[in-house]
Amino acid sequence: MRPLRLGMVGGGPGAGIAPAHRRAARLDDRFVVVAGAFSRNADANRQMGEELRIAPDRVYADFSAMAAAEASRADGIECVAVVTPNDTHAPASLAFIRNGIDVICDKPMANSLAEAIAVEKAAAERGVLFALTHNYSAYPMVAEARHQVQTGALGAIRVVAVEYAQGTRNRLLEAEGDAKMAWRVNSAVAGPSTVLGDIGTHAHHLMRRITGLEIATLSAELSAMVPGRAADDNAQVNMRLGGGARGMMWCSMVAAGNGHGLRIRVFGEKASLHWDQERPDELHLRADNAPYRTLRRGEAYLCEAARHLSRTKTGNPEGYFGAFANLYADAAEVIGARREGRFPNPNAASFATARDGVIAMKFIEAAVASHRNGGAWTDATLAG
Amino acid sequence: MRPLRLGMVGGGPGAGIAPAHRRAARLDDRFVVVAGAFSRNADANRQMGEELRIAPDRVYADFSAMAAAEASRADGIECVAVVTPNDTHAPASLAFIRNGIDVICDKPMANSLAEAIAVEKAAAERGVLFALTHNYSAYPMVAEARHQVQTGALGAIRVVAVEYAQGTRNRLLEAEGDAKMAWRVNSAVAGPSTVLGDIGTHAHHLMRRITGLEIATLSAELSAMVPGRAADDNAQVNMRLGGGARGMMWCSMVAAGNGHGLRIRVFGEKASLHWDQERPDELHLRADNAPYRTLRRGEAYLCEAARHLSRTKTGNPEGYFGAFANLYADAAEVIGARREGRFPNPNAASFATARDGVIAMKFIEAAVASHRNGGAWTDATLAG
Amino acid sequence: MRPLRLGMVGGGPGAGIAPAHRRAARLDDRFVVVAGAFSRNADANRQMGEELRIAPDRVYADFSAMAAAEASRADGIECVAVVTPNDTHAPASLAFIRNGIDVICDKPMANSLAEAIAVEKAAAERGVLFALTHNYSAYPMVAEARHQVQTGALGAIRVVAVEYAQGTRNRLLEAEGDAKMAWRVNSAVAGPSTVLGDIGTHAHHLMRRITGLEIATLSAELSAMVPGRAADDNAQVNMRLGGGARGMMWCSMVAAGNGHGLRIRVFGEKASLHWDQERPDELHLRADNAPYRTLRRGEAYLCEAARHLSRTKTGNPEGYFGAFANLYADAAEVIGARREGRFPNPNAASFATARDGVIAMKFIEAAVASHRNGGAWTDATLAG
Amino acid sequence: MRPLRLGMVGGGPGAGIAPAHRRAARLDDRFVVVAGAFSRNADANRQMGEELRIAPDRVYADFSAMAAAEASRADGIECVAVVTPNDTHAPASLAFIRNGIDVICDKPMANSLAEAIAVEKAAAERGVLFALTHNYSAYPMVAEARHQVQTGALGAIRVVAVEYAQGTRNRLLEAEGDAKMAWRVNSAVAGPSTVLGDIGTHAHHLMRRITGLEIATLSAELSAMVPGRAADDNAQVNMRLGGGARGMMWCSMVAAGNGHGLRIRVFGEKASLHWDQERPDELHLRADNAPYRTLRRGEAYLCEAARHLSRTKTGNPEGYFGAFANLYADAAEVIGARREGRFPNPNAASFATARDGVIAMKFIEAAVASHRNGGAWTDATLAG
């Protein structure tokens, strides 16, 4: 299978997440980057084009020009990766969608619920893929966790505890010249909640991915813990979930020494599951009347979806690169299948969808509303 | 030093926590049990007296008779351990306090704030010790954690996450003939919140012990997760703490497969600390710009208070028996010092005080009030 | 059941292991110390007698006087604990055995195979108990490990890896005034191998206890790693075990930062088991085609022998005190049964026997011989 | 920097390690595969060529034809990866070396010491790179471990314990149609020791990489533990190392349930270090008189060599793909520098050299000789 032609919006020199996208695209040899609008700075843009050996005429000044030009080429890009700051996610995605080009977009999907709905609608109308890179949900053992829930190993879910708490932004970096932090605390760029938009959406998607439960109502406390910070950096959210379950989410940028900090625990009437992104190849299943069990990536006893997301034998940690590449490989499979007029591999589903992105924006808006209303229980359903 | 003469109220055959109290009293040879009112059932009472080799005339039908009789003997008990269901804690304590006998009481201190205040007042007036057995706070590494906070290793505290979540009562045991569970879900016996009275007070005291912070206001969600249960078995409490810190507490009886489940994490501006009762000999200190550190019980680099609570060299786990015995040894030291007219060892402070017990009752009442009021932020200070 | 009257040889002020013996005797209320020959130093001897509230006429100058006098008293000791340096283990044990007094002795049993055989023979002839305190083998999860092997969970054993490696004696303590280390490196007191006599016998017994396998031949390398040290402090032993299995033992006093350092892994044709004294409440069972399993102390699914050795519910670590007390409780049960003319609880078997001690002495002598012979494979069977 | 043109010998459909090599070459975009002799089976060879989109005229029937043809093309390969069974490593490497083409070769270097020396000599004479893929030694935290030893954090090394023990070949796979196992137990293909050639060389290199110590003499026990197996599958090697240190190596194919199983511990006079391939982002440093420390990949406090081998921030596990890619990236850097006439990055040194491969072959031959000689201590130095 030949690799798909990929374009990239964002990801100039010094960008944070773009190298991870490029390695993910490359690892399984399913994409080759052939065009880009990497930076609004012309020099930086050209420099990145050269580093990636892109033909100079395919290094564009902005995403609009790129979408138009590439759509008109016979050898134009088949897919674009959008890896810009948050406020460009929706407009850039729309530009490519409208030109019939499939989109892989970093999270969050948009800066408002309304924007997200517009992107979802456009993609549906144009019949292109909109894939959101909640890369932490693309680990094999997350698929296994979902499978365990679906097949009843836990029984009815009673309590979910998810957290994504880090400490690396536990001082006023935005006043120390940190450009990434500067836009993250600027709600015009980062959206209505800094901490929920940046990392809360990962925790939110992971919870939904594994449990299949949606939030009915929530009670949120958002705080700015670093003195002088103009945006929230700590969120505590209590949730009432579908089926009567309770949930707790903690997202933080001030959790000193907490490492990566994304982990989830799901407690059911029969057993619980425990997963930590820092040890992603292990899934723990625990009940009170039986030995604790640890399931491991790469083993034959795992579900088909987990095995689909794994490349090497157990014990060799695949890590972050493997999970991120799963998203790209699955997107390539789905895009390739449509282009070839065949059914895709049904397991090629590790990426988040436009619907997932829309629900996440609703979650953020409900949390902000609850916080402003003294922690009042607030509807988080799309109908609401 | 001769052992103190100890009496016991409660702790008949089949009782839960009483054998732990007796082993704790015995381990360091600071107490000998010489009297008791073990059970309201006369046969059970006599049987336990024989098992413990108590003189028959010192096995009493009830705590009132015991308090009066022992107070009048020259060789009467010097201290009593109260290990009954919750509703007897305060009345039994009062009976002995009024007879000038020191009291070691299981948690919670009382079934209401008013009761707790009455006990505190009586003990102060009579000049006797009231020691509450928050045994999980008596581990050496909890003392070290407190020391690390006090000496500034974490800087100002930003977020505290404490939880005590177990799964062993994750079905309707009270309908299956479980006598202990039956009284625990009966608010007349167990107090206003089942889960907070039973285990929440341990989490609450651990948080206060380590951080030195008090709760200003809280927002609570109390739930009965097991179908058919008449009392709360799951509590999620968001807290605003002294100094502007935020806190989260989760206490649960439905956390399937979660083992013992008491752990705490404290995040400050410089570093965090992490402690888990299942691995009590380890204290983790973590910062983002330095290697993670694990401090271990029994080492010479620990603070004096931690070394005071430790008996054996590092690597030999002292565990639950060691911690529980610390409470008794420290109570014996304080009681012995007063009787001998000397200053006690200043490190003999691992037990909780009457004031701690009073604050815990206020916490429970505030949490119940917040929950009934839709999670509204509620004052939890004693002034409030 | 009334406690047995216990005497103690050794254990004067500052002694290492004696307080552990005393706490172990006390924890389950099965013994009361009423006599002793605690120290050869008369002042220290008297001082310890006072501390333990022993009648002055039962504090003896030496074990011979004590054995004779106690045997002639109607209320004489029923059992003695020998907790002296190694060279006194056999002579003191013999003195009490010959007076019909049961013996609980610290390891190693003796300083030579011949001595050990003499003690075993004397105990058998006199019909008294000789119990050796390999306390690390008395943990509940060691009993469960043994049960798993016996019931075939591992299949035939292929490889055993046991180690007991510590770092606390990783400098020349014996030249710094450390009295305990001074006698440990003196072969006249400590026996033919310092490291094997002190800690190697624990590793050896643990391996035999769990696997049921005996060493056929061994190849040993004994080294003195600390410059200036006159005795071995590091041992590497390759073993050919019964049934064709292979074994490796590493014992060391120079393993800097290794904590307590006793752990064992047993690999069979079907699965392996893993146990570490620093986390004694967990037993890991692992196979390649199934989830890893962790069995936990206190659970109902454990074997009867494991449940017999456990006092509290899972999650509350019982630790070192619990295990050491198991030895004493089981010895009390066996002694009590004989005195009462009844069968003992068949699970009261956590202590090591005279036979175990004899086999350990053979192991040490074979290892020393192999080392002196350039690592030649050397017979370690008692017949050999 | 444009990617180097890479050829591949071996790695046909179903091959084990070849996909890892290809992903490693691709991850950092430093190589592109343009030629190959993938399989001796013509169909399989052609099929793999198509899968990798290689021009049909550059898919060769054997490595000799490939070496000659590619050397004569202006756009010929600049480097070759040899990923065949062991017996082809040396002959294939020689063919390319003699044509001036740089070689990246899977381990072991050869099937005999003599062969290995011949390859080393040829590469030196022709001035080309011979890089051996001991990928497990290319983790960032292995570089940090080496740095800690070199800068004296451990003091003089006293004991090294390294092991690589797996259980996945713990039954007679070679009799069940497993083609890879069939050649591994055939000494004509796999060399003089199955277990040492396959995995022992990884353990051996890791030990040398971190400690800088060479083996002086060794005493080995090699065993065939699976009934019916014609080759060794378990090795226990005691070592006397440079500077008087002692070493232990255990390599096994029969360690049921042991996962990947490569780990190392190094004990010095001041502290020890501990590293496990299954948690490769952590390096543990432990001393007896200080808190244990855990160093983590991605942190600024690590040595330059460790930071050089790392791509993402701490907490996102880079795993196996990252480490393997380090070897390829460093080889590309060294090759590129020579071709461009510049000095390479001095940190580009994660691959093993021809000298490392030669020393490993001497190790294997000494171990086999010792075993055949009853475990006699045997010289393992190259002079010997």
Labels describing this entry:
14 strands, globular, 12 helices, alpha/beta, 384 residues, homotetramer
Describe this structure in words.
The structure is a homotetramer of 384-residue chains. Chain A has helices at 18-27, 42-51, 63-71, 89-98, 113-126, 140-150, 179-184, 187-190, 194-211, 304-308, 319-340, 354-372, and strands spanning 4-9, 31-37, 79-82, 102-105, 130-132, 157-165, 215-223, 234-241, 246-252, 262-268, 272-276, 282-286, 292-296, 378-379. Chain A is of the alpha/beta class and 384 residues long. In chain A, strands 13-12-11-10-6-9-8-7-14 form a nine-stranded mixed sheet. Chain A has a five-stranded parallel sheet with strand order 2-1-3-4-5, with helices on both faces. In chain A, helix 1 (18-27) links the parallel strand 1 and strand 2. In chain A, helix 1 (18-27) crosses helix 11. The N and C termini of chain A lie far apart (45 Å). Chains in contact: A-B, A-C, A-D, B-C, B-D, C-D. Chains B and D meet through strand 13 of B and strand 13 of D.
What structural category characterises the helix and strand content of chain A?
alpha/beta
Low-confidence stretches of chain A: none
Number of strands of chain A: 14
- Biggest interface, which chains? A-B, 42 and 42 residues
Query: Which overall shape of chain A is indicated by the principal axes computed on the Cα atoms?
Result: globular
Mean pLDDT of chain A: 96
Give the helix level of chain A as a range of percent.
25-40%
The number of helical segments of chain A is 12
Distance between the termini of chain A: 45 Å
User: SSE order of chain A, as H and E?
Assistant: EHEHHEHEHEHEHHHEEEEEEEHHHE
Roughly how many Å is the radius of gyration of chain A?
20 Å
Give me the side-by-side strand order of the main sheet of chain A.
Answer: 13-12-11-10-6-9-8-7-14
Assembly type of the chains comes to homotetramer
